[in-house]
Write a structure and sequence with these properties.
The complex is a heterodimer of chains A (353) and B (220).
Chain A: H1 2-10, H2 12-50, E1 54-58, E2 82-94, E3 101-108, E4 118-121, E5 129-133, E6 146-149, E7 155-162, E8 166-167, E9 170-176, H3 177-185, E10 195-198, E11 210-213, H4 215-220, H5 225-256, H6 259-267, H7 272-304, H8 315-335, H9 337-341, H10 345-349
Parallel strand pairs in A: 3-9, 5-7
Antiparallel strand pairs in A: 1-10, 1-11, 2-3, 2-6, 2-10, 4-7, 5-9, 6-7, 8-9
Helix pairs in contact in A: 1-7, 2-5, 2-7, 2-8, 5-8, 7-8
Chain B: E1 4-13, E2 20-30, E3 35-39, H1 46-53, E4 61-66, E5 69-70, H2 76-86, E6 87-90, H3 102-113, H4 120-127, H5 143-156, E7 161-165, H6 173-190, E8 193-197, E9 209-214, E10 217-219
Parallel strand pairs in B: 3-8, 3-9, 6-7, 7-8
Antiparallel strand pairs in B: 1-2, 1-4, 4-5, 9-10
Helix pairs in contact in B: 4-5, 5-6
Classes of the chains: A alpha+beta (353), B alpha/beta (220).
């Protein structure tokens, strides 16, 4: 510890740069992971909020809620744990403005368990009312605003706000099933839905031409979700492995560069254990500071980035990457220990004479 | 009894056609307080001999005895302990740890030996005229100052023997002479045997005994 800390203190500039490099590498990994995980989350947050067990959707829809239509379901027979949902993509305008705002429409029964948790306002009580996610219109939506959807003449009043209700990366607009049918089928009484969401497995109901899937399957079939996730996972995974090697090689070179100093210390009888401890402690200090700064910068990024930017941290991923980086920082140093222990004393003393 | 004794010590490198004798079998006995100089051309085997005496290199044959104890019979850990407790090293490139200040060089020894030498470092640094440099890193010192601190560091653990490998190589002749005189006087004062390797013939007069090493063979 004494040798490790004093060397860091005596070479602040040099080790400052090492910490800067470790910080930038850690931050790069966290930032890309945050973006990828944020984007993935924005595809699925609304489904996660359901906390459902199973979902019935059309057997012809290939697991894609947007492509699913179930007709003739007697909605009155469904209890609050059997939640019908109608899903469609829509373009809305706000308060008579010209800006088109992309959104996902969820037509639901507001007595069912998938009704949104509100942060403001109240639940929908009439067909011309909607609850919208706070990220709608880049976070500039408020209670009382009026929406026009898909060019309809009808205006819908925002009566409630919810959060973390995104589907296919778009903020969700919750409305009644009647309004959903009106918007999608131009007939409020069409009685169509996209699927039925079940709270528990025991709530599952037999529906004609439907199949039962899990929320996980539903999410994986959100258009683009799996392709996007596997691309990002591969990209970040490859980057992480390359970074691990870079860090390990860098730490190895850093330690090997000091072999002559360690040689002198060994010649003087300073034990190998003391040197190894010093190397490992020093690597750990550098790693913890570099990775720690990366974590702090990552948290600051969450605060600084605009709400519309998909960015989210996954504790397990960030923790795993942090541990991996720390491990490689130490391993990189440890690889050089063999050379240090086998250093030729004649070379340490200054060559043959 | 000699503090350091070599009995038929030799060192060869390689084998078969490539075998090279770095040090031919030799006997040598050095008493406490003696100042010995090893001289000779480059590559003659001086440093090889020094590193064998210092327990850094194992002889091909023979025994190196420190106070009657055979270094060859010790484990590497024990030899390392001997180097730390009973030897002092002064190297051409300085034996100082570059990232520790002068004072910290001594503090490190205290920490590792779990002993407090109570002002002994100050005493040595004052005697060697470098007491004002306690907070300096080795790189901030002149060559002469660095070697004087190195002498203080080598004496600090009360060694039985000090090995000095060309400690004056980087110094001008005046400084070189001063450093050797200081080393000699400190060694006499502390009754420490000193074995110094040098190419500088002007320094030979300072030695109690001079050995010349040529092609691995030693003669007084």
């Amino acid at each position: 510890m004494y040798l490790a800390t004093h060397e860091l203190k005596a070479n602040k500039g040099r080790y400052g740069l090492v910490i800067l490099m470790l910080f930038l590498i850690a931050y790069l990994i966290y930032f890309l992971t945050g973006l990828a995980y944020g984007l993935a989350s924005n595809n699925r947050l609304a489904v996660d909020q359901w906390d459902a067990s199973r979902i019935s959707i059309s057997k012809y829809a290939d697991g894609n809620l947007a492509a699913s239509t179930l007709s003739g379901v007697n909605l009155k027979q469904l209890n609050s744990n059997q939640a019908p949902v109608g899903e469609m993509n829509a373009v809305a305008t706000l308060n008579g403005g010209d800006d088109n705002i992309d959104a996902t429409i969820f037509g639901i029964k507001f007595q069912s368990f998938i009704k949104p948790q509100l942060t403001k306002g109240h639940q929908v009580k009439a067909d011309e009312q909607v609850v919208v996610d706070e990220q709608f219109n880049a976070g500039k939506v408020k209670i009382g605003d009026r929406l026009k959807i898909n060019g309809s003449h009808q205006k819908y009043q925002v009566v409630g706000l919810t959060q973390s209700n995104l589907y296919g990366t778009l903020p969700v607009v919750f409305t009644t099933l009647k309004t959903y049918n009106q918007l999608k089928y131009t007939n409020a009484n069409a009685g169509n839905i996209s699927g039925i969401v079940y709270k528990h497995k025991k709530d599952v109901k037999n529906v004609e031409n439907a199949k039962i899937i899990t929320p996980k399957t539903l999410i994986e079939n959100i258009p683009g979700y799996s392709a996007q996730n596997s691309t990002f996972s591969l990209m970040i995974g490859a980057l992480f492995i390359i970074v691990l090697f870079i860090v390990a090689i860098f730490m190895y070179i850093l330690t090997v560069q000091k072999i002559s100093v360690y040689g002198i210390m060994r010649a003087q009888g300073i034990s190998s254990k003391t040197l190894v401890n010093s190397i490992v402690v020093q690597a750990l200090i550098l790693g913890v500071i570099g990775v720690g700064l990366g974590l702090i910068a990552n948290q600051l990024t969450v605060l600084i980035l605009p709400a519309a930017m998909p960015y989210a941290n996954n504790g397990m991923l960030v923790g795993g990457f942090s541990m991996g980086l720390l491990l490689m920082v130490i391993l990189g140093s440890v690889f050089s220990i063999r050379q240090i222990l086998k250093i030729d004393p004649i070379k340490a003393i200054g060559g043959a004479a | 009894m000699a503090v350091l004794e070599l009995k038929q010590v030799s060192k060869t490198f390689g084998s078969g056609n490539t075998e090279m004798t770095a040090v031919a079998p030799l006997d040598l006995a050095i008493d406490a307080g003696e100042f010995i100089i090893l001289t000779g051309p480059s590559g003659s085997g001086k440093t090889t001999l020094l590193t064998m005496m210092g327990g850094l290199l194992t002889p091909t044959s023979g025994q190196v005895l420190l106070n009657g104890q055979d270094l060859g019979q010790m484990t590497e850990k024990q030899r390392s302990r001997v180097r730390f407790d009973q030897y002092g090293f002064i190297l051409q490139s300085s034996n100082l740890i570059p990232f520790l200040t002068v004072a910290e060089q001594f503090e490190l020894v205290d920490r590792l030996s779990k002993q407090n030498h109570d002002g002994y470092a100050d005493q040595l640094l004052t005697a060697l005229g470098v007491a004002d440099e306690k907070t300096s890193l080795p790189a901030k010192l002149s060559g002469g100052q660095r070697q004087r601190v190195a002498i203080a560091r080598a004496l600090y653990n009360h060694p039985a023997v000090i090995f000095a490998d060309e400690p004056t190589a980087a110094l001008d002749s005046k400084r070189a002479f001063q450093v050797v005189q200081t080393l000699k006087s400190q060694a006499k004062e502390h009754n420490v045997a000193v074995i110094m390797v040098t190419h500088d013939d002007d320094l030979l007069a300072e030695a109690d005994r001079v050995y010349t090493v040529v092609d691995g063979k030693i003669k007084e």
